[in-house]
């Protein structure tokens, strides 16, 4: 299973790099307030909104598979071992279905992010006042997401993600898919604040993606999960304050 997941990670990472290079080649649109809007949130010439949404979803899922597999792999391994302990002779396919359910949650999340993101980008292009406010809002969101890293709620979510599957696991394809959905929702609650930071600070940019992938894996499976989460929070708060200061300097 580890070999198959490694190949999937390599393929998704390569697809993400290609998509990021494609976005970079298109350039960004200068906006009022001294920042630039990624082409990811805009339709290309002659492109329908449906096609733009599907293009975003494809890039989003390639990115999510590459980013979340390091955190997901130990959870899938625990699930596979739990199935084997139940006497399942072939736990591989239920594990695959669990992974599909997990990434299905992130696909829905991607579409939920795209719709307001595209609407906000359209509004910012038409309204300079909105464009000037967005860098401040992005900085504030990063500060808030960093502060959440210090909360008891975050510590509980990390503990849930580290827990082994319970004894109530049921056999069957539907149960396996539902387990994956459960894992995805639990993961979304745990690192949703970190994903929000990525959305406002550099979606499809290699630096932020690599940093966030490392942060999620370290806080989820490192020896000092709570301490790592707080350290990540401190870095995020500093980054958010820097974004606000830069927005002020640019006017």
Structural class by SSE content: mainly alpha
Using the CA coordinates, give the radius of gyration: 19 Å
Please give the number of β-strands: 2
Q: What's the order of the H and E elements?
A: HEEHHHHHHH
Spans with pLDDT under 50 lasting ≥5 residues? none
The biggest beta sheet reads: 2 strands, antiparallel
Return the domain count. Answer: 1
Count of runs of 4 or more consecutive helical residues: 8
- Terminal-residue CA separation: 52 Å
Mean pLDDT: 86
Q: How does this structure look, described?
A:
Helix 7 (206-221) runs antiparallel to helix 8. This protein has helices at 2-26, 49-85, 92-126, 128-148, 152-162, 173-201, 206-221, 225-250; strands spanning 28-31, 35-38. 29% of the residues are buried. It has one domain. It has eight helices and two strands. With 251 residues, it is mainly alpha-helical. It starts with a helix and ends with a helix. The chain has a two-stranded antiparallel ribbon with strand order 1-2. A hairpin with a 3-residue loop joins strand 1 (28-31) and strand 2. The model has no long low-confidence stretch (mean pLDDT 86).
């Amino acid at each position: 299973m580890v070999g198959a997941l490694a190949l999937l990670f390599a393929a998704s990472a390569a697809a993400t790099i290609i998509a990021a290079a494609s976005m970079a080649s298109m350039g960004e649109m200068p906006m009022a307030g001294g920042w630039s809007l990624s082409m990811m949130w805009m339709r290309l010439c002659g492109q329908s909104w449906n096609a733009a949404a599907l293009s975003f979803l494809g890039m989003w899922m390639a990115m999510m598979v590459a980013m979340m597999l390091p955190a997901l792999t130990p959870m899938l391994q625990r699930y596979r071992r739990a199935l084997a302990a139940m006497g399942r002779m072939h736990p591989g396919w239920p594990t695959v279905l669990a992974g599909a359910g997990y990434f299905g949650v992130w696909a829905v999340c991607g579409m939920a992010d795209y719709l307001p993101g595209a609407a906000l980008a359209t509004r910012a292009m038409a309204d300079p006042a909105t464009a000037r406010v967005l860098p401040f809002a992005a900085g504030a969101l990063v500060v808030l997401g960093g502060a959440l890293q210090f909360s008891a709620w975050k510590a509980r979510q990390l503990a849930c993600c580290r827990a082994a599957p319970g004894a109530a696991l049921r056999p069957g394809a539907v149960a396996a898919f539902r387990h994956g959905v459960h894992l995805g929702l639990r993961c979304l609650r745990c690192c949703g604040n970190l994903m929000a930071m990525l959305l406002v600070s550099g979606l499809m940019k290699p630096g932020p993606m690599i940093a966030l992938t490392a942060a999620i894996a370290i806080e989820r499976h490192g020896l000092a999960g709570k301490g790592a989460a707080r350290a990540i929070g401190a870095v995020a708060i500093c980054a958010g304050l820097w974004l606000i200061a830069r927005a002020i300097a640019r006017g």
